[in-house]
């Protein structure tokens, strides 16, 4: 199997179809509530503290936090579609959240401006090269206040390697089938995703990649950036439901401080 990956694949894939193909995670209110339960306990900040949801998509975590009384939450994501969807949902719920469309490697946000920064939902490792992934860690460190907390949600590399499935398929709604063909190469998982509709045929075929990090590797990167007090929540959101959720099946969260 040959996988040709556009290095900028992440600029185009996160749209209305993504919210359907990944609905089992990113549109599941119960999953979001469970994740935010952990976020609250891990951040341990008061409701007036400024929080940045980096690579936050449609802001599902931010919206849940705002619904719980946190009133200085900012969402930054590259996808204009997801940002607009989040703004509409926040307005529908009458919640005050700032949404920003930007590249997480170069946010243009002020230094030392957030009490907490989080990168959730497996939104890290989109680049094959460590240098590009590390730019997100460096930017998170820059905008975080001294003493602030950083949360990084990652695929559990050991689980992914031990349970690797080269092909998976699932259906969503009444008409969509999502088939994913995968290969592993030098700690990078490449995935070719085909989305077909029973009425319209093939809707999309795209290829993306995720770089997998062990606990030792991500600890080293965080330490080189300047983060300290690095702790792992290794069984974060261990999916017990039947089905292959890919890198979202079993994840770990790394908590660290500036």
List keywords for this structure.
Rossmann fold; 8 helices; seven-stranded mixed β-sheet; alpha/beta; 258 residues
Brief overview:
30% of the residues lie in helices and 31% in strands.
Overview of this protein structure:
With 258 residues, the chain is α/β, with parallel strands linked by helices. The chain has one domain (10-155, 213-257): 3-Layer(aba) Sandwich (Rossmann fold), CATH 3.40.50.150. The chain has helices spanning 16-21, 23-26, 29-43, 60-67, 80-92, 130-143, 157-162, 215-225; strands at residues 51-54, 73-77, 98-101, 114-119, 144-155, 167-172, 176-185, 188-197, 201-211, 228-233, 251-257. It has a seven-stranded mixed sheet with strand order 3-2-1-4-5-11-10, sandwiched between helices. The protein has a four-stranded antiparallel sheet with strand order 6-7-8-9, with no helix packed on it. Strand 6 and strand 7 form a beta hairpin. 35% of the residues are buried.
Write the layout of secondary structure elements.
Layout: H1 16-21, H2 23-26, H3 29-43, E1 51-54, H4 60-67, E2 73-77, H5 80-92, E3 98-101, E4 114-119, H6 130-143, E5 144-155, H7 157-162, E6 167-172, E7 176-185, E8 188-197, E9 201-211, H8 215-225, E10 228-233, E11 251-257
Parallel strand pairs: 1-2, 1-4, 2-3, 4-5
Antiparallel strand pairs: 5-11, 6-7, 7-8, 8-9, 10-11
Helix pairs in contact: 3-4
Shape: globular
Number of domains: 1
Approximately what portion of the residues adopt beta-strand conformation? 25-35%
Give the second-level CATH assignment, the architecture: 3-Layer(aba) Sandwich
The major beta sheet can be summarized as: 7 strands, mixed
Low-pLDDT windows of residues: none
Given the helix and strand composition, which structural class is it? alpha/beta
Topology, number of strands: 11
